[in-house]
Every structure is written in structure tokens, then in C-alpha cells.
Amino acid sequence: AITPAHLNDTLKHQTGKHSKEHIQERILLEAQRASTQAELSMKAIAMDLGFSDSAHFSRFFKKQAGESFSEFRERIREKYI
Questions:
Q1: Residues 21, 23, 26, 28: what is their CA dihedral angle, to the nearest 10 degrees?
Q2: Are 15 and 26 in contact (CB under 8 A)?
Q3: Contacts from 76-79 at CB under 8 Å and sequence distance 24+?
Q4: 0.85 exceeded by the pTM?
Q5: What is the dihedral of CA 55, 56, 59, 61, to 10 degrees?
Q6: d(CA 77, CA 71)
Q7: Residue 54 and residue 43: Cα distance in Å, rounded?
Q8: Residue 72 has what pLDDT?
Q9: Nearest to 57, CA basis, from 39, 42, 40, 71
Q10: Do 32 and 54 touch, CB atoms closer than 8 A?
Q11: How confident is the model at residue 1 (pLDDT cuts 50, 70, 90)?
Q12: Would you state the pLDDT for residue 37?
């Protein structure tokens, strides 16, 4: 029962990050986790995370992670599989 502005201010004060940053970090973490599952395509992961367009997800992922989804997936598979 708090306003979005109050939540944002409280998070910023407590963590140094705005609520949007926390949400984006969580979405990125879920995308990275899902990328390790071979049977899931990028499009399926994007849809599961609420993106209506896989191109938008691709841009979001690259901006947040610093590398493309396919680059990340390839690197993780080489390292752990």
C-alpha cells in the first residue's frame, strides 16, 4: 500500500538503485538462467519474460549484459557443457 514513487525512493535510498534497475537485473538473470536450457529458443524465452517482440528482447539483453544473447549462450555452453 505504497506509491510507486515512494517505493522507488526507498529502494534508491537503501540500495543505490531505482526500482527499474532491480526489475531489469531480475529479467536479465532469468534470461541468462533460461539460456542454459537447450530446448528453449531465444524467442520462447523472450515471450516467457513478457517481451512481445524478440528483437526488443535482443536489444534489451545486449544493453544489459554487454553481449548478445547468442554470444552469451555460446560462451556459457563452452564453459559449462
A1: -70
A2: no
A3: 76/32, 76/35, 76/36, 77/36
A4: yes
A5: -110
A6: 10
A7: 5
A8: 95
A9: 42
A10: no
A11: confident
A12: 84
Sequence-separated (6 or more) residues with CB below 8 Å from residue 69 = 31, 35, 42, 57, 58, 61, 62
Q: Which three cell numbers stand for residue 6?
A: 515512494
Q: Are 65 and 32 in contact (CB under 8 A)?
A: yes
pLDDT at 8: 95
Grid cell for residue 27:
529479467
Which phi and psi (to 5°) does residue 57 adopt? -60, -45
pLDDT digits (tens, 9 = 90+) for 13-72: 999 999 999 999 999 999 999 998 878 999 999 999 999 999 999 999 999 999 999 999
Dig out the grid coordinates for 17 from the structure.
Answer: 538503485
Residue type at 19?
S
